[in-house]
Amino acid sequence: MRPREKLIASQDERLLQTRLACPDITRACDLARAFADLVRHQRGYLLLEWIRQAEQDAPKPMKGFVGFLRQDLDAVTVGLTLPWSSGVVEGHVNRVKTQASHVWTCLM
Predict the structure, then answer these.
(1) Percent of the chain whose pLDDT exceeds 70
(2) How far apart are CA 69 and CA 92, in angstroms?
(3) Looking at CB atoms within 10 Å, which of 12, 24, 47, 101 has the fewest?
(4) In what residue span(s) does the Transposase IS204/IS1001/IS1096/IS1165 DDE domain sit (predicted)?
(5) What are the two backbone dihedrals, phi and then psi, of residue 74, each rounded to the nearest 5 degrees?
(6) Which residues contact residue 78 at a Cβ distance below 8 angstroms, ignoring those fewer than 6 apart?
(7) Nearest Cα to 63, choosing from 24, 100, 92?
């Protein structure tokens, strides 16, 4: 997933040979890079178009991923659009859940 311009020559050559040998890998790679671009640059407004492209001709495993995105499309779009993240608090939420679970176990 490293940008092509950051690959060393042997990596770029290996990637090219792999892409030529397998059209499914080529398509999956192209879609993955486009999705990474949506994430990196917060382009949630392009998500639905990306999903439509993936549904048309993505390899089967990637179509499963697309299905998960569609299940909560609004939340995914917001996550790819707004600059805020709940990542900072997620660790704290999990820690509190774990502690509560231990307390509950002790009380039983």
Answers:
(1) 83
(2) 25
(3) 101
(4) 3-98
(5) -60, -45
(6) 44
(7) 24
- How many other C-beta atoms are found inside a 10 Å radius of the C-beta of residue 51? 19
**Model pLDDT, residue 107:** 65
CA distance linking residue 18 with residue 26, whole number of Å: 8
Residue closest to 18 by CA, chosen among 29, 9, 7, 8:
29
Tokens found for residue 40:
């990196």
Query: Coil, strand or helix: which one is 26?
Result: helix
Ramachandran angles phi, psi of 16, nearest 5°? -60, -45
Q: Where are the domains of the chain?
A: 4-107
Q: How many CB atoms lie within 10 A of CB 16?
A: 13
- Reading the block at residue 98, the tokens are 């774990």
C-alpha–C-alpha distance, residues 14 and 4, integer Å = 12
Two tokens at 47? 């998500």
d(Cα 17, Cα 13) in Å, to the nearest integer? 6
